[in-house]
Design a protein that fits this description.
The protein is built from 20 helices and 14 strands. The chain is of the alpha+beta class and about 500 residues long. It has 4 domains: about 180 residues, no CATH class; about 140 residues, no CATH class; about 100 residues, no CATH class; about 50 residues, no CATH class. The strands form 5 sheets. Strands 3, 8, 9, 10, 11 and 12 form a 6-stranded antiparallel beta sheet that branches. A two-stranded parallel ribbon has the order 1-4.
Length: about 500
């Protein structure tokens, strides 16, 4: 396979390359395939400034040449990362970046390290027969959903730039091509450890363990059992992350071990979507035939993935094999309790509770409300957001805005509201303060699936980015009901029609 050559650019990125420097054997040097006729889709000025980059210059034609792979900025050392992974339960010992390249790392003004890399920049040695390309629709989906997650305060990779390439890619049909530039705290994942473990490369695992701890958990460097300490840290991050997903009704759709980051960031926005009518069995991904990654299964799948990480770490635990297995198993078995604590914290936020005295009672209260949402097919987002209207109006029952979503289930709702008000009365603070907390925890605006599809279709079919830009503006202020166009009842807040939601499916985009 011939490595493509590209020109260079005078555009400056303050790149470092700690991954390439410290982890030989986990990547291959490679070059992006230049886009033939690039044009801007979107540049993320806010993110560029947060990274300490020259946003104005990057948003120019010079930046377009860089983000389309036509030129390589000085200091960049593009590499395709190697990793393995369990995909829908089946293990692949070699996956890797089949359409992605890491350009390098930058330190932001606060000294935090961020990866910057391409997605859709052409085939690599890990492409496994694929074209290595991406289409406009999936690229803009990742831009939208990752920005929505960031606005919701949920850890996520983000999109720095999205450009159309001027060529077509073949999927179910011919689609306009695109390249996304992604940033991440790192691209270290469970599958990175699995890659080396599958090869019996213990020295490589030790290097990777030291590198991961230095990058994400430096305080653990001198612990007696660094592998177990890292496993616990990753468990805690993933438990907190999945609890936040569950709180907003987010369904990742492809929780393979190569898509679980050690940093605790959400990564890979392929077949993801937000649930509307609350149903624990909701699945959107067209390739998830058996519901492995359904909404309610996400916490358990996270534990399953963490068990795979524990297996990969066994060779670098400073313990006899039997004891290492015992300790790792015991630690992974602590995950449900860690997750339940994170989920209870999320539920309390959504219900306006600050008093933590009654853990079992609070969880039962939250679970019973979720069951009401499910039984009466209430929109998950509005079902929680509109609870605060009860407190703001001082209503003795459900407000009309909330009751209309329950219909015949309103009497059951009224009984639950009485329990909730009694619980709120046991804690300090006024009702309006609890309502303010709830409105800061429960979004009014999410990327509604029908709006996402409409925006992506307009961008892909007609090169019309106006619907995308309008939706992006709305989802960047998810909690704000005062802005024009985001009050309850507008297009941004309302669920899709039955025709729009029935049988809705998402696709990976590969």
């Amino acid at each position: 396979m011939t490595v493509l050559s590209t020109q260079t650019s005078s555009l400056h990125f303050p790149f470092d390359h700690s991954f390439a420097r410290e982890l030989p054997g986990l990547y291959l040097p490679w070059q992006p395939q230049p886009a033939p006729a690039p044009r801007w889709l979107r540049f993320n000025h806010e993110l560029a400034r947060e990274l300490g980059l020259d946003a104005d210059r990057l948003a120019s034609d010079e930046g377009l040449a860089v983000f389309s792979g036509q030129v390589v900025p000085p200091g960049a050392q593009p590499i395709a990362l190697a990793y393995a992974g369990h995909q829908f339960g089946g293990f692949s010992p070699q996956l890797g970046d089949g359409r992605a390249l890491l350009l390098g790392e930058v330190l932001d003004p606060l000294g935090r390290r961020h990866d910057i890399g391409f997605k859709g920049s052409g085939p690599t040695p890990f492409s496994r027969g694929g074209d290595g390309k991406a289409a406009v629709g999936p690229v803009l989906r990742e831009y939208l959903i990752s920005e929505a997650m960031h606005a919701l305060g949920i850890p996520t990779t983000r999109t720095l730039a999205a450009v159309a390439t001027g060529e077509t890619v073949r999927r179910e049909r011919l689609l306009p091509g695109a390249i996304l530039t992604r940033t991440a705290a790192s691209h270290l994942r469970v599958g990175t450890f699995q890659f080396l473990a599958a090869r019996g490369d213990v020295s490589g695992l030790r290097r990777l363990l030291r590198y991961t701890i230095a990058r994400h958990d430096p305080a653990l460097m001198d612990t007696p059992e660094p592998a177990l300490a890292l496993l616990r840290a990753v468990m805690e991050r993933q438990a907190a992350l999945v609890a936040r997903w569950m709180g907003v009704g987010f369904i990742h759709g492809v929780m393979n071990t190569d898509n679980m980051t050690l940093s605790g960031e959400t990564i890979d926005y392929g077949p993801c979507a937000f649930m509307e009518a609350h149903d624990p069995d909701t699945v959107f991904s067209s390739i998830d035939d058996h519901g492995r990654y359904a909404y309610a299964n996400q916490p358990g799948i996270a534990q399953w993935n963490l068990a795979r990480l524990a297996e990969a770490l066994l060779p670098v635990m400073n313990l006899p094999e039997a004891q290492a297995v015992e300790r790792a198993t015991a630690l992974v078995n602590e995950y449900p309790a860690i997750y339940r604590a994170c989920w209870l914290t999320e539920c309390r936020r959504k219900l306006g509770l600050v008093d933590t005295a009654d853990a079992s009672g609070d969880q039962a209260l939250a679970n019973d409300y979720l069951q009401l949402l499910h039984r009466w097919q209430v929109d998950h987002t509005l079902g929680f957001r509109l609870l605060s209207t009860v407190l703001r109006t001082g209503s003795s029952g459900a407000t009309p805005a909330l009751a209309e979503h329950f219909g015949a289930g309103t009497p059951a709702l009224e009984a639950w509201l009485e329990r909730w008000r009694c619980r709120l009365a046991q804690q300090p603070g006024r009702a309006d303060e609890a309502a303010d907390r709830m409105d800061a925890a429960n979004p009014l605006v999410i990327p509604r699936n029908h709006l996402v599809e409409a925006a992506l279709d307009a961008a892909s079919t007609d090169a019309n980015l106006r619907p995308f830009e309008a939706l992006l503006t709305a989802i960047r202020q998810p909690f704000d009901a005062t802005r024009t166009g985001t009050r309850t009842g507008t297009i941004w807040t309302q669920p899709g029609s039955p025709e729009q939601t029935r049988g809705y499916r998402t696709f990976c985009g590969t």
